[in-house]
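Ops channel
N.P.: pipeline sanity check, posting one input/output pair.
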């Protein structure tokens, strides 16, 4: 995933430096957008899988080499998120892209987005929100069935998933209520 991410990173940079005019410029912009979205997905997935592998190696007491590889992959994945921020600033130099560490990152990102971009983000966020709700509920049910069938309590995981679900729903509900 990281190899493909790196390839996409260089492709976006190369496309950005491509001179195009008219309809060709729109096609290049669309290709940059799609490649950047793919890059973003692969980097985020790499972070999640690195954490999963790290946790698995630590819990199952696997070899220290696997743990070191998982930590290194996690660090490289994090560095790729920094590259992602730099890539956004390269592709959109006319925009004042906020830093990821900014406490009001989401609000500032929405402010600099046009109506079409806001609409696309809104649809994506809402679909992700609904998927998270369904996914966590299924996770809770599966963990319960696993606990019952194996006599290995997953109560801690069930509690954590339930708390995450309550917090996410609370954040969403209170955010839209207070607007």
């Amino acid at each position: 995933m990281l190899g493909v991410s790196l390839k996409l990173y260089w492709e976006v940079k190369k496309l950005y430096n491509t001179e195009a005019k008219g309809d060709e410029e729109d096609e290049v912009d669309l290709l940059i957008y799609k490649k950047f979205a793919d890059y973003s997905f692969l980097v985020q997935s790499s972070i999640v899988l690195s954490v999963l592998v790290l946790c698995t190696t630590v819990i199952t007491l696997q070899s220290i080499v696997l743990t070191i590889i998982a930590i290194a992959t996690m660090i490289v994945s994090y560095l790729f998120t920094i590259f992602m921020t730099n890539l956004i600033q390269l592709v959109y130099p006319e925009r004042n892209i906020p830093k990821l560490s900014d406490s009001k990152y989401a609000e500032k990102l929405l402010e600099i987005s046009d109506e079409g971009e806001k609409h696309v983000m809104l649809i994506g966020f809402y679909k992700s929100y609904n998927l998270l709700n369904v996914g966590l509920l299924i996770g809770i049910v599966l963990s319960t069935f696993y606990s019952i069938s194996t006599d290995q309590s997953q109560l801690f995981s069930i509690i954590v998933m339930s708390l995450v679900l309550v917090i996410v729903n609370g954040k969403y509900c209170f955010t839209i209520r207070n607007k």
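N.P.: looks fine end to end. The chain has a mean pLDDT of 85.
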